[in-house]
Specification:
By secondary structure, the chain is an alpha+beta fold. It has a single domain, classed as Secreted effector protein pipB2 fold (2-Layer Sandwich). It has two helices and eight strands, in the order E-E-E-E-H-E-E-E-E-H. The strands form two sheets. A five-stranded antiparallel β-sheet has the order 4-5-6-7-8. It has a three-stranded antiparallel β-sheet with strand order 1-2-3, covered by helices on one side. Helix 1 packs antiparallel against helix 2. The N and C termini lie far apart (about 45 Å). The relative contact order is 0.21.
Length: about 130
């Protein structure tokens, strides 16, 4: 199976009621994975916690409704770990996507580095007022 490249960017929402909230953009193979899907990125702390879990398989919410509530509308992916790889597959949720998203497979070391990098940047974010 081909190996994909993952990275994370932090941006700040610029619309009410979530103006200024930090959100995560998922970058796969150099492009914003969820551009055009709607909603907004996850809270960086929440996403790091979900993606760092060592479970062999679990679902993780990777995009939420534009109102900021995860339970309102969201997009989930099943994360499956093996010794050498991490795969994202079985996309579900209520955000609009032009096509069913494909499976992505990551080298487990590169995946861990990307999450650690995101975690380091989250630690540098200013505290919420």
């Amino acid at each position: 199976m081909p190996v994909d490249d993952i990275a994370f960017e932090i941006e700040h929402a610029d619309w009410p009621p979530v103006d200024g909230w930090p959100t995560v953009i998922i970058v796969l193979n150099g492009a914003d994975l969820l551009c055009g899907v709607g909603g907004m990125g996850m809270d960086p702390d929440e996403l790091v916690a979900k993606l760092r879990r060592p479970d062999a398989e679990r679902d993780a919410t990777v995009r939420r409704c534009g109102c900021g509530e995860v339970g309102c509308r969201s997009l989930q992916v099943r994360v499956t770990r093996s010794d050498d790889t991490v795969s994202w597959h079985c996309w579900t949720g209520s955000l609009e996507s032009p096509d069913q998203l494909p499976e992505f497979c990551f080298d487990s070391s590169q995946y861990a580095r990307a999450i650690n990098d995101l975690s380091d940047r989250v630690a540098e974010l200013p505290a919420e007022p």
